[in-house]
TrEMBL record:
Substrate binds at residues 50, 148. One of its GO terms (molecular function) is initiator methionyl aminopeptidase activity. A divalent metal cation 1 binds at residues 67, 78, 204. This is Methionine aminopeptidase. It catalyses: Release of N-terminal amino acids, preferentially methionine, from peptides and arylamides. GO terms for biological process: proteolysis. Keywords: Aminopeptidase, Hydrolase, Metal-binding, Protease. It comes from Gossypium raimondii (Peruvian cotton). One of its GO terms (cellular component) is chloroplast.
């Protein structure tokens, strides 16, 4: 797992990612979307999602989710990962590990004709084995020519209908917590944190449903 050095700010991370996107002829989808003021979301420790980059230096032991969406050649690609900053506790490392595993397991069951509710069951079953909570209010979504579209992809056990179809593209983005799954939104109308201040982690990929299963479109080569 990649580790950031303590002392770097989330503003600096935002600036680096923004410039990399622009240098490659693309555009950061979150910038200006619904009034969001930055190019990436940076969610630290108890922040579940949609954290706004700022001038606070990362501290030794922090975990940080960096959520990047890029618009290139008429299409959006959406991905995120949770990283370590310095020497991270075993409790935090385990949460991050299990969250990544839950995403990988969910992707592995995707294929034409599979019910979407199996994604939620797969994630929820894996989280339960380790006593982690699954956030319900934030979901995966269709993505492609538009940033957010159908289908809605729930990450918890559910009985919603719908099956995956060939050439469909959507995100899976489970958010797990050590404690409360109840989200609290800050006054900035973006930043969402756990009600009890407990740690949260998230991983996300954009996938394409293929004849053989699912292709990860946002898999990094390095």
């Amino acid at each position: 797992m990649f580790c950031w050095q303590p002392g770097i700010t989330t503003d600096e991370i935002d600036e680096v990612v923004h410039q990399m996107i622009i240098d490659n002829g693309a555009y950061p989808s979150p910038l200006g979307y619904g009034g969001f003021p930055k190019s990436v979301c940076t969610s630290v420790n108890e922040c579940i999602c949609h954290g706004i980059p700022d001038s606070r230096p990362l501290q030794d032991g922090d975990i940080i989710n960096i959520d990047v969406t890029v618009y290139l050649n008429g299409y959006h690609g959406d991905t995120s990962a949770t990283f370590f900053c310095g020497d991270v506790s075993e409790e935090a490392r385990n949460l991050v590990k299990v969250t990544k595993e839950s995403l990988d397991k969910a992707i592995s069951i995707c294929a034409p004709g599979v019910e979407f509710k199996k994604i939620g069951k797969t994630i929820h079953d894996h989280a339960d084995k380790f006593g982690y909570g699954v956030v319900r209010q934030f979901v995966g979504h269709g993505v492609g020519r538009v940033f957010h579209a159908d289908p809605v992809v729930l990450h918890f056990r559910n009985n919603d209908g719908g099956r995956m179809v060939l050439n469909q593209t959507f995100t899976i983005e489970p958010m797990l917590t050590i404690g409360s799954i109840n989200p609290v939104m800050w006054d900035d109308d973006w930043t969402v944190v756990t009600e009890d201040g407990s740690l949260s982690a998230q991983f996300e990929h954009t996938i394409l449903i293929t004849e053989d299963g699912a292709e990860i479109l946002t898999q990094c080569e390095a």
